[in-house]
Structures
1.
Amino acid sequence: MKPESMFLAAPKRWKIWRRDVLMKDMTIRRNRVDWPILVAITVAAFFGLTSLPGRSISASNPRPAEITTQNVAPRRDFTVVAEMLEKFIAREMAEKDLPAVSIALVDDQQIVWANGFGFADPTAKTPATAETVYRVGSVSKLFTDIAVMQLVEQGKLDINAPVTRYLPTFHPKNNFDKPITLRQLMSHRSGLVREPPVGNYFDPTGPTLAKTIASLNDTKLVYAPETHVKYSNAGVATVGYVLEKTQGEPFAKYLKRSVLDPMGLDHSSFEPTPEITKSLAKAYMWTIDGRTFPAPTFELGISPAGSMYTTVKDMGRFMSVLFAGGRGSKGQLLTQSTLDEMWKPQYAKPGAKTGFGIGFGISEMDGHRKIGHGGAIYGFAIKRFARRQTRCRRSDHKGRRKCRDGPHRRSCAESHARRARRQVDSRARENIAGSARPGKAARWPLYEWSKGL
């Protein structure tokens, strides 16, 4: 049975938080994984127009035919699913004043629907498409961790060795007996502070990764390593710096060469190149009292933890790599056994089914394992996860399953879409209640994804 998966961004509301509050903790078939349908929604900005794409397109903007080539019409057996999701997206955009949403639906190795809604640039009336570029925040961590696991498979890194083996000058104050390891950092079990003093989420100066990591020597561990989950952007930034130092290449260029390009993610990058920024959606933010302003665009010093740019089509290709057991368009990137290790809760009690794996968050949905990660960065938010598909019980009079083709397949797909929509709807109402208009208090903390999935 093929897998079902979800890649999803729920709308966020932003507040202006006091810096000291947020920073208070600074001192086989083909060896294919059994998971199939991926829904990817990327929310680009949180204030502005509620118009849908294809309307009021000026002559200077892409012609409808060109837009069509950037999107993917729904495959016949997913038409009803796409219609359901379009209605849901339209409602969410209207309620939350979202300028742009892009979505891709992937069935195993095929993108079966991809579309954009609203405007990537509300001023120029540039429609959002499936090839609109978005910043994806902490989803970046998955790619940093995959790069490390590639080197582990090659015998070039040991994730259980002290990080000082690779970064001799890395010395945050550690009053505990355990040294910090790469495994701990990638599973948020190192006890390291959330943000570094330099290069943190609020630092607009764009320091180098080296200066960002060096500033951690002025911090001390919050917990003993391996004893508590302590979500840490600083931790994954350190992981990225290990890649930079050991491979002798700037982090962004190494990730592009070793991970993004081999996966076929041609419109993805950890740096804002001209090719990337020309398709980047315009993002906006607002304060609790209703003032609006363009979202900041500065690069984070913690780049490996949150500075990736990508499209929903590229994210669909990424999911297909996972579905194929680590095989990308240019060959095998990771083995299935490595992915299995990344999808296993780390430092967990025997029998535990939830927690952080290596990079991926592990949880349950409808009694099945769910893997994923969310992300947010100024003006953008995204959520992605994968869930094993429930086996179809529909059969003919001879007991043969009839879900592979025809109306029964569509019925099963519709059922899964309704279940996913209910989950998104309930999370949105739970976390964003009372925040549909500027000026109302938001209930989502700035780092919602610190709670996991």
Note: Confidence is low (pLDDT under 50) at residues 1-61, 390-409, 426-453.
2.
Amino acid sequence: MQVYSLDTETMLQLLRERRQTGILATDLPLGTAGVRGRLHAVVTITAGKIVDCRIEESNGQLWVVGEEALQELHRLGTLDWSLTLQQTTPKLPAIQQTSPVLNYSPYLQDSSTAVTGPIKREEPQIPVRSMLVEASQMTQWPRTHRMVYAMVDGKNTTKRIAELLSMQTTTLEQILRDLQNMRVITINQ
């Protein structure tokens, strides 16, 4: 772990120029934005690009994410950052924002590769992993995405996964589209 005392823009520029991959974290000053407790910011960087930015309260509750979180960090000036570098693994694109639950930040969008149409409902649809993903890479995924990815084994149909997870089919389809857009699964007919 490396420690830096820099403003957000300089810190991000340094990582961008070096094309580094890792987790950048900082505790925000007490009283930031009128919040009584301490806020903690985490920025996930892959090959020098921001893939996630979030500010959480000390109890773990999400306070702000995406562009809004990034703007708040820029506004605060110099912060004490800790950087945990990660080895470069196969590049996983950020979750493509086809689900309204995840649609919080324009810098995560890449409409050129997004699967946006409905998933065909012909049975059986069998999702298959197209890439093995390390647990450390999945930590930034929503819990539902991790649960669905865990059920994708090349044998379970989409209907079976929905039953096992007690999940509505439309919700499962949105998550499967997100995972397809990340290129970590494909769906065989």
Note: The two ends are 45 Å apart (CA to CA).
